[in-house]
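cron nightly-structures :: item 1 of 1
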Amino acid sequence: MFERTLLLNRQLLNNRWLFTLLGILVAVLGGWLVGNFGMTGALMTVGLPVGLLIVANILLEPKIGLLAYLNLSFLLGWARFIQSDFPLGLAMDSVLVLTLLSVFLNAKRMNWKRLRHPVYFAVVFWLLYTILELLNPEAPYKPAWFFHARAFSLNWFYMATIMLVVPITKEDIRLLIKIWLIWSFLAALWAFKQQYIGLEASEIRWLAEGNDRTHVLWGQLRSFSFYSDASQFGAEMASATLICSIRFFEEKGVMRRIGYVFLTLIFFWAYAVSGTRSAFFVLVAGYPSYLFLRRDPALIFKGVMVALPLLVILLFTHLGDSVYQIYRIRTALRPSEDASFLVRLENQQKLRAYLKDLPFGAGIGTSADTGARFSPNHFAAQIPPDSWYVEIWIETGIVGLTLYLLMLATIIGYGVYKVWQIKDPWLFRLMIALLANFIGIALMCYSNPTLSQFPTCTMLYIASILFTTCERWDTVPEKIVNKYNGLMTSVRN
């Protein structure tokens, strides 16, 4: 994957005089930084060469930037462990923009024809609409646009461009999935540590800053691991549960099936200790989507026979209510009895009255935390959206919400069309899992802003391009071709 980068690095190593000069300059700079800034200067001295080396490698190979961005998406949640004003979110955006720059610097190796793609057109159209929102006269503070536009459209556009033109291989896809599952497993272990052993001082401080109101309910901690909050963590664990359970059904080897069963149980209980009820709908929507995509009557029957008893138990009995996590999951299926859900409906009624004469919304950056920061007296900042779609509705109006939902429908519809044409069994199994998970997260976003939060948004941006361009890797294994040729030979004889 990185042969070209390694070759260039070897060529650089041959120029020893250059490294000697750089070493002297770094030593002088390091001494000045330590003398003037103490420990901070020492950290800068160590971090600067490493940072420059990473930047150089990203510029040489866009795939390195892609992997760096994915890993940073998971590391972002660790910001609560360090008391620093460093803008980590902007640093991540810098890595993504740097990767995009690398794509242009390596233009000759890129396949630019792939940009002529229906899904890319949908993403670009949504991007153009959000840019036009800069002209929205209702927005009280124009610079706030930049804070929400990243999550609304910019990052998806950057990632779609990179994923489409970069020559990604099957091995690259395997690596991306492995990184996702490894980080998810580590996150699950940390959540169990929070739940059953205890919290770190920095986590206790984070809760004391007001987050205990949503993360400690009736004396029960909602584990959040090293994610931004429990809702985001719960969504990730539900996604990992869905992916691993599908892989269990699809794998043939006994040891692999045992491994996926183990991971499914780990991730499901991690989801349970998050106390995120809405994340249950990742499974409620994702699992039937997988059965539908599979188009196997026998498998659909087995899937229904497994899922139906569980839903009946959750809906019509009180078994397990003594366990808080099970009780919390059960309440997700009874929204009419949930006070917080009823409050959300009341808020939406108020917003409907405000927005009836604002088809283009109140302007991007006017709601949620950004709105409270820059325009606290604006109506959009005074009513919590409590939903990704409601947030889009507030800021871009009914026109923007319609366009956004059409973009999601285009991605899902085109993804279904493409995965049903796959001939490679391994690729088919993986792509239907990614598509089913995308559908599950899309449904969950009615209650949470998951599509705008790291690391889920990063994986969804990547997955949306993988399953809608899956024909790029659709090569039938040689053993299947040989088996087919042998059968045809027998028929002819």
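cron nightly-structures :: done
The longest helix spans residues 388-419.
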